[in-house]
Amino acid sequence: ASTVMSYYNTSSSAWVNYTVPGRTLTLYKYDVPNVIRAGSDNKTADSPIMFSDYKTCDVVRAPHTGNDSDCELWVAEQYVNRYPSCCDFIYDLLCAPQKHHIYENHCTKPPR
């Protein structure tokens, strides 16, 4: 499986899309998939899933930062302006107190 991700490049004033191969894994003695592995064969990043409502949001650890309490709140595009309060609650409960908001709803929408 793969995911199409986008970011807005302020230098070129354009959206950049890229495809990231990914899959879920069952690790740490769990019996259900609990880690998202993104990347290619020789360069991958694992993000343990801390919470998911399986529709609107996921809270995942961000071990690439070097801080064990860093997380990311992932929200499905169609729910970005109206996701359940439990997503914020779990994010606040399990993650580092410092938050970095990387989404701004006034940005131009990415091309389809």
From TrEMBL:
Range of residues in the leader sequence: none
GO biological process, any: symbiont-mediated perturbation of host defenses
GO terms of molecular function: amine binding
A Pfam family: His_binding
Protein name: Putative lipocalin lipocalin
